[in-house]
Design a protein that fits this description.
Helix content: 25-40%
CATH topology: Thiol Ester Dehydrase, Chain A
Number of domains: 1
Number of helices: 3
Number of strands: 6
Structural class: alpha+beta
Strand order of the largest sheet: 1-2-4-5-6-3
Radius of gyration: 14 Å
Strand content: 35-45%
CATH architecture: Roll
Shape: globular
CATH superfamily: Hotdog Thioesterase
């Protein structure tokens, strides 16, 4: 089985991935099958009323899951998102947040996990279940 990725390798990957750079994501913490992505508030992510848009929360969850998978399979793994379900349970209003993803099942063909986006105060903003397909 391939060796997982280090925090340094994940930071380099995140820095050179164009779509992730566009959101300004930064690596928080990592563990075995877990990863936290930090998201700084940006006015361009704002919907009317000062609420951070849902696609930003979804992208943070997807990137956090991607990196969580890489902690187990290494940076060269090519698994891709096949399904995501998101429940928005609170609004981020002009605030930074973080999203933590955890691999719950690592199969030969599918990887299943969950992610939680949480605001500065620790309030849950969104819960995601995510499935990746291994290629």
């Amino acid at each position: 089985m391939p060796r997982g990725s280090s925090a340094a390798a994940l930071r380099r990957l995140l820095a050179r991935t164009p779509f992730a750079r566009g959101f300004g994501f930064s690596l928080g913490s990592i563990g075995d099958g877990e990863c936290t992505v930090r998201v700084a508030f940006r006015r361009r992510h704002e919907r009317p009323g000062g609420i951070v848009s849902g696609p930003v929360l979804m992208a943070a969850a997807d990137v956090a899951m991607w990196l969580a998978i890489l902690t187990k399979l290494g940076v060269d793994d090519t698994a891709v998102t096949s399904h995501m379900t998101t429940a928005f349970v609170g609004a981020a209003r002009r605030e930074d947040f973080h999203c933590t993803a955890k691999v719950l099942k690592l199969g030969r063909r599918m990887i299943y996990g969950e992610a939680r986006c949480v605001g500065r105060s620790g309030r849950l903003l969104a819960h995601h279940t995510i499935t990746y397909a291994r290629r």
